[in-house]
Amino acid sequence: MNVLQVKESPAEAAVMHDIEYYYTDIKLKQTPLSMLLPVIHLEGNENTKNGCWNIISESELCQIFAFLHVLREKLEKGPVELANKMKKAAGEVDVLLLKIKQIDGMWLEWNAKQTTSHQDLQHSPERCTVRCKFFTKIEVALRQEFKKKEEKKKKAEKKEFTKKDFAKAFMDAEAEGKFSTAKGNIKVQSEQDVTKVMNLATFLSKIPDMLDLWEGNEIWEEGKTPLFYFTFGHWFPGACNDDPKIGLWVLKQIDNVRIDNITGKSKLTKKKILEANGPRMKDFVKTLILEYNWMADLQANMAGKPIMSAERMGKEMAELQKVWGDDQSGFDDLVADEGGIQATLHPLTLEVLVLFIKVAKQEEFNRFSTAEALHKSFSKTCESDILVDFFKPVVDKWTDAHNHHTGQEEKDKKKDKDPEREDDEEEENKKPTRSVAIREYAAHDVKTYLPTYVKTGDAQVDRQKLLTFAICLPLTSETAPRNLETQGNRRVFVLDENGRKNPNWAYVKGRNEYRGKVGLERDVLEEDVGLWTVMAAPGEGPRDKKVDVFTTYNCDQAAASRAILQVLKPIRGVEVKKVILRGKQEDLERRLKQRGNMTDTLGDLDGVPGMSEECYQAFAGSLPTRREHRYTNAGIVDNVYPEEVIPLPNPALMEPLVTHELRKRIFAPLSDGNTQQVQRDEPAPTEKADKEDKNREKLCTYGRDEKYVENALWLLGASNVVVHGVGNGMIPWVCLKWRIPCVCIYDCEEHQKCVHEFITKKVENLMKKAVPANTRWWKSNDDLNCIPDVDEKTEKDKKKRTAAALDDDEKKEKKKKKSKSSSSSSTSSSSSSSKKSKTE
């Protein structure tokens, strides 16, 4: 083999693949001596010396390397008979020396790649790196040959070698029979085919590691990945905005998935990549690019808001950049923290580092994938709720630390100039009082647990925007949070028509509004069920992993029951249950105000709203387990029995209270769907005039009782809630009290403002009255970072004392002035009398 010249060694993966295919112990015993090595084709001419012949086929080179690797092992470790057999085969190898030009040898090499064998994957012309390497090599040879021809021409006639010339040479070589493209393989037919390959080759060559990373991840032990195919390869540079740093990050993440064998449904795994088709893999790459851009953008923003000295800030930003920057060689040491680097970092920098490591280890891949699926600009994507919930707490802390740091720097500068002003500035920067801090905390608590959405009227727009809420993202029993109060992890979607409107009699004086009913709008039902099916995906995947429940009420109407079943029953993978809710007799009679108004005959309460309402529950997953009710239920023990006796709220105590006009604007009359509009020649007179807007009245006629809502959420084991038909806000209030995140869907902005102001005020009052034993609502001054409130009585007494002291000072000054004026007048009179005596 001293005639062979090897300029580049083959890929290690290809050599190991040949060892497994050709040179295991069993195959070495069974393979005839003459077939242990292939016929080696070399190219050169009469002047070529031994050691300078070039091998034509890369597959032959791989097999030679594999043979020599195994031969060395057998010589060192045995068995001896196999080593002797291989030595003998090496001495009898057939070598075919071809007298051809260098470029013709390259065409022969390309032709050899078109043949079918076990090495299709390793040396296939369809493989991205094989194609890029060969095109780069053949372009150099064609360019040199073209240059020699142009040297013979005159200077004015000389031309540059272009991609068009490259494509023409490729097509001419195939036409002349120097190679032939195998059926089904990509054929060069235009300049564009060459340009695509060279663009990818140029992009991968910008950073040396990129080509090796791409080549190592085209073929895994389990099979091909989408990186193998050139249709994906020529898309890749454009997706990375031709930025090799982004491309390097993406390829390193894919390589980490291969090496670390990452598992988990919420992560990017080997199985997902191997099973992905082209479009799916492109989505994965877009998600990885979003991760890179997000980390770069977040670090740039934080670098612009220093929280420490410039020198230390630069060092800590450099540590963060090890996670996503160009040089990630120190990433493993940073994660393992063998050198104790993390202990030296600022606490907030450490929090950011933890976020970055989660992203780099693809623990938040599903979060970024969902954000990428919104198909928005980068800035809008970063503002989406799913990403904001992820990083906003750290960003807020960083901003506060930055403001404190810059303020302290300014104080230090001013102190150097004027030390006496320090005390004055400290007095100006006082903490808020307890009442102000409680108000701010209550508003923040409501905003955190009760995100809101006001419908636009466009069903498609509403659905798209609602699906961006973190609560509305896909959930399974493994990813859904568990609530301590309900001891469950179900997500409940509630549509309550009684919370979307009032009966028409609520706006007519002299009518008992509790005698009227509201109607179920089928369009609204179908729209909400459609949104729920997107969230829950019933019928897809294992049923025991589903956690979604859809709940709605028939508003005491049989027609509504039929409509609900017609919408819910056809959904595949959904089981519908009905629970009859019977209102307590004393509560029904309280609504009707006086027992004497009724005839006291048998069944006189029949048909009264609230007496027999039906609740329908659609389960995408398994049914809830047996649970006892939280209150005594007239002999009904648990949720196995399909009926409940429920409390109804007291109309005299219902809140919030609003003006009559605001109530009409939030729940417009004639919107219940039951009133028949009859055209008349003359308008029919009403019995009595409409209600006057003098007194404040309850917002919602048929609100839910707090005990009933608590019991319903407990029976279902709710940990996330989406409610449409908020009504008087009882469902959101219970969710807030139990720390259950709840998306509140409103039909108008005034309703949203009214309910949330009421709940905020309610929280504020509870926090003011709370004592340390009440751990849910009590917050100390240290927790709120505030100072105690000043007692109003003592403050008034102080003002009175200061006013009295001022009055006393004024009176004393007036007396002094009077005494001075009287003394001056007496002296002037005495002087005038002395002058008169002298003249006399």
Q: Supply the number of helical segments.
A: 34
- Helical residues, percent: 40-55%
Provide the structure class: alpha/beta
Number of strands: 16
- Strand fraction: 5-15%
Sheet having the most strands: 8 strands, mixed
Shape: elongated
Ends distance: 157 Å
Over all CA atoms, what is the radius of gyration? 41 Å
**Reading side by side through the largest sheet, how are the strands ordered?**
7-16-15-8-9-11-10-12
Low-pLDDT segments, ≥5 res: 1-6, 96-101, 671-693, 826-840
The average pLDDT value, as a whole number, equals: 79
Explain what this protein looks like in three dimensions.
This protein has 840 residues and is of the alpha/beta class. Helices cover 51% and strands 8% of the residues. It has 34 helices and 16 strands. Strands 7-16-15-8-9-11-10-12 form an eight-stranded mixed β-sheet, with helices on both faces. Helix 15 (278-303) crosses helix 20 (365-372). The longest helix is centred in the last third of the chain and has 48 residues, at 792-839. The radius of gyration is 41 Å and the shape is elongated.
Which properties best describe this structure?
disordered N terminus, 840 residues, 34 helices, eight-stranded mixed beta sheet, single chain, alpha/beta, four-stranded mixed beta sheet, 8% strand
Question: What is the element layout, followed by pairings?
Answer:
Blueprint: E1 4-5, H1 12-22, H2 25-30, E2 40-44, E3 53-55, H3 58-77, H4 80-91, E4 95-99, H5 102-113, H6 120-123, H7 128-151, H8 163-175, H9 191-204, H10 208-216, E5 219-220, E6 223-224, H11 230-233, H12 236-239, H13 244-260, H14 270-275, H15 278-303, H16 310-324, H17 331-336, H18 341-344, H19 347-360, H20 365-372, H21 378-382, H22 385-417, H23 421-428, H24 434-449, E7 452-454, H25 459-466, E8 490-495, H26 522-536, E9 548-553, H27 558-568, E10 575-583, H28 585-591, E11 613-619, E12 643-646, E13 657-658, H29 660-666, E14 697-698, H30 706-716, E15 718-724, H31 730-737, E16 742-746, H32 749-769, H33 781-784, H34 792-839
